[in-house]
Write a structure and sequence with these properties.
By secondary structure, the protein is an all-alpha fold. It contains eight helices and no strands.
Length: 179
């Protein structure tokens, strides 16, 4: 944003605000780890975070909206981005349909209670695999790299979970209680 000549206060504020809201937007790892550590339903945590997230997003928008009165706070969009024909906009929208279907199916199945978080994750993997096949980008090398990346991430998350459970155990042994 600074490279594109946005006002530095606006750029820093947007990044900080987005980071604070990112911990509440499902699928939030913070909520997943909290739920696993405290044996709380992750679906309930996701549901409980929707109102604070919506309120925070609205407040951030209201705080940034007065900057429209300061035209020098953000640079104008280049003419080629301001004058996009409607046909091109709809063509660009078509490329977003598959990812949106995957997102809504995964989060919708969690919110409605149809699936657990693990089952919804498996649905997401299946959906992404089908989407890659539909777009003709699914290759054996891509599958291998994806599996390697997923296994590395799972290993990291397992160690984080072990550390979180150890910390909770020590906390409880010292007389604290999370319930």
């Amino acid at each position: 944003m600074l490279r594109l000549r946005y006002d530095s206060k606006l750029a820093i504020g947007v990044v900080c605000a987005g980071g604070s809201l990112g911990t509440m937007i499902p699928p939030s790892l913070v909520l997943v780890f909290y739920g696993l550590t405290t044996s709380t339903s992750i679906g309930d945590l996701f549901l409980a975070s929707t109102i604070p997230h919506r309120a925070g997003a609205d407040l951030h928008y209201l705080c940034a909206d007065p900057l429209r009165a300061q035209p020098d706070a953000r640079p104008p969009a280049p003419p080629e981005l301001r004058n996009i024909p409607l046909r091109a906009k709809f063509a660009a929208l078509r490329s977003v349909i598959l990812p949106l279907l995957i997102i809504f199916s995964v989060l919708g199945s969690i919110y409605t209670g149809i699936t657990s978080v693990s089952e919804a994750a498996a649905m997401g993997v299946a959906g992404v695999t089908v989407a890659a096949a539909i777009r003709r980008t699914l290759t054996l090398a891509m599958l291998r790299d994806s599996l390697y990346s997923a296994m590395s991430t799972c290993g990291l998350l397992i160690w984080l979970s072990i550390g979180a459970n150890a910390m909770v155990g020590v906390y409880n042994l010292l007389g604290g209680s999370l319930t």
